[in-house]
Specification:
Helix content: 10-25%
Largest sheet: 8 strands, antiparallel, barrel
CATH architecture: Beta Barrel
Number of helices: 2
CATH topology: Porin
Number of domains: 1
Shape: elongated
Strand order of the largest sheet: 1-2-3-4-5-6-7-8
Number of strands: 8
Structural class: mainly beta
Strand content: over 45%
Order of helices and strands: HEEEEHEEEE
CATH class: Mainly Beta
Length: 189
């Protein structure tokens, strides 16, 4: 009986010591672009499966202004500040299947919180005013690597948005439903 217990302890300790516990990377810097903007980001490791993503960038805004007979389409860039804790929930599974996990390549669930300031790059007619807002959107997404430095990322989520009302500005609803639907190509440094 003593030999069996010793054998079980040795086997268990061997299995525990050889078990893989894949982790997100300590810190990642990169840039990404998509149809609706360009962003620079950092992901900082909090635990083996959770990273805190901080992001600065420009979201694209587009609207139509009807002046005379023909509508005029205007595009603006809106500065965006984002903080997003991400839980990469399938890193160990990807590692067990010999799939890449470098650069935090995996599936994730996050809470994307974005603040848009009330300044824009581009021309906005004098009778229009851009109002700052904040959105909080639970998101599901994936990131995959292409080669050593390139990656792509896609995500979808629905959440809450709030416009910060300004004096002498009429807003029908300050609380709105926010959608996060993104497809981005990126470069990791």
């Amino acid at each position: 009986m003593k030999k069996i217990i010793i054998a079980l302890i040795c086997t268990t300790s061997f299995l525990i010591s050889s078990a893989q516990n894949t982790s997100v990377e300590k810190s990642i810097y990169g840039i990404q672009t998509g149809l609706l903007g360009v962003w620079a980001h950092n992901e900082l490791k909090l635990t083996n499966s959770i990273a805190l993503r901080s992001e600065l960038g420009f979201d694209v805004g587009a609207f139509s202004e009807r002046l005379g007979e023909d509508p005029e389409f205007l595009f603006i860039l809106i500065p965006a500040i984002t903080v997003e804790p991400r839980w990469y929930y399938n890193l160990n599974k990807r590692e067990s299947k010999s799939l890449r996990t470098d650069g935090n390549s995996g599936n994730f669930i996050s809470i994307k919180t974005t603040y848009h300031v009330d300044k824009v790059i581009g021309s906005v007619p004098n009778h229009l005013n851009y109002i700052s807002d904040i959105t909080i959107v639970p998101t599901w997404g994936i990131r995959r690597n292409i080669g050593k430095h390139f990656n792509y990322e896609t995500g979808i989520g629905i959440g809450y948005g709030h416009y910060f009302k300004e004096k002498d500005v009429y807003i029908k609803d300050v609380n709105v439903v926010a959608l996060n639907l993104h497809l981005r190509l990126g470069y990791r440094f």
